[in-house]
């Protein structure tokens, strides 16, 4: 589904922060992306989501070479990928329900067809009583859960989650991890960027470890 070959990334004229990354993300796979703070996990997530172009190397997503894909084609590819960013990126003028339903609205779906799915998912992540409030009223943990629900609502082929349990307590972190596992069983490839050791130890999954700009993989 995703293939990197000798990918490097630098910002401006600075040194490469990611060097010679070569790996593949297989269909229906589950992996953790980990490493020390500042190792480049968020930059790698952005490369995977195609919101950032590499300085060098080859990236293929769904068998398409990103170096020859026009900007007008990227949104269609991105619809196959759900992403949870550290900064949530919720729209403050939309309610929690409207934020989670937004990807379905943009895709032209009829609300009558998705309303119950959105409501059920919000209840599952513990936001059933917060679906009609605006993001500025939500706590950090509630915003995190809303962002996760929005990423999951389309049942994406790939889920990218950048520190998805960073603002929730351990019991809810375990619950969210179970949700990711169930989504993976339904066929979604899952990539979770985290430095939470307790989270890593709960699943026997592939580990992709970033350190000093280089990637090591432990299956």
Keywords:
7 helices; alpha/beta; four-stranded antiparallel sheet; globular; 219 residues; single chain; six-stranded mixed sheet
Textual characterization of the structure:
It contains seven helices and ten strands. Helices cover 32% and strands 26% of the residues. It is α/β, with parallel strands linked by helices and 219 residues long. The chain is globular. Strands 6-7-8-3-9-10 form a six-stranded mixed β-sheet, sandwiched between helices. The protein has a four-stranded antiparallel β-sheet with strand order 2-1-4-5, with helices on one face. The protein starts with a strand and ends with a strand.
Molecular shape = globular
How far from one another are the termini? 18 Å
Beta-sheet strand percentage? 25-35%
Total strand count, please?
10
Report the biggest beta sheet as strand number plus sense, adding barrel if it closes: 6 strands, mixed
One letter per element, helices H and strands E, the order comes to EEEHEEHEHHHEHEHEE
Helical proportion?
25-40%
**How much is the average pLDDT?**
91
**SS-derived structural category:** alpha/beta
Q: Which sequence of strands runs across the widest sheet?
A: 6-7-8-3-9-10
Counting DSSP H or I runs of 4 or more residues, the number of helices is 7
* Poorly predicted ranges: none
Tell me the Rg in angstroms: 17 Å
Task: Give the oligomer, counting copies of the same chain as homo and different chains as hetero.
Answer: single chain
Pfam family, one: ABC_tran
Keywords: ATP-binding, Cell cycle, Cell division, Cell membrane, Membrane, Nucleotide-binding, Transport
InterPro entries: AAA+_ATPase (IPR003593), ABC_transporter-like_ATP-bd (IPR003439), ABC_transporter-like_CS (IPR017871), ABC_transpr_LolD-like (IPR015854), Cell_div_FtsE (IPR005286), MacB-like_ATP-bd (IPR017911), P-loop_NTPase (IPR027417)
Subunit structure: Homodimer. Forms a membrane-associated complex with FtsX.
């Amino acid at each position: 589904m995703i293939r990197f070959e000798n990918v490097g990334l630098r910002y401006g004229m600075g040194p490469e922060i990611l060097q010679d990354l070569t790996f593949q993300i297989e269909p229906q796979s589950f992996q953790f992306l980990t490493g020390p703070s500042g190792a480049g996990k968020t930059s790698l997530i952005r490369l995977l989501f195609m919101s950032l172009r590499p300085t060098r190397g080859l990236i293929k997503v769904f068998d398409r070479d990103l170096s020859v894909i026009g900007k007008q084609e990227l949104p269609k590819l991105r619809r196959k990928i759900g992403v949870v960013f550290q900064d949530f990126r919720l729209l403050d003028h939309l309610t929690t329900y409207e934020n989670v339903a937004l990807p379905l609205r943009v895709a032209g779906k009829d609300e009558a067809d998705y309303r119950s799915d959105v409501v059920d998912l919000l209840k599952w992540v513990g936001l059933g009583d917060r679906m009609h409030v605006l993001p500025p009223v939500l706590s950090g943990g509630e915003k995190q859960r809303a962002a996760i629900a929005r990423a999951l609502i389309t049942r994406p082929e790939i889920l990218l989650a950048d520190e998805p349990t960073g603002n929730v307590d351990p019991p809810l972190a375990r619950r969210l991890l179970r949700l990711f596992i169930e989504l993976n069983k339904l066929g979604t490839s899952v990539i979770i960027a985290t430095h939470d050791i307790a989270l890593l130890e709960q699943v026997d999954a592939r580990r992709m470890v970033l350190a000093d700009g280089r990637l090591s993989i432990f299956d």
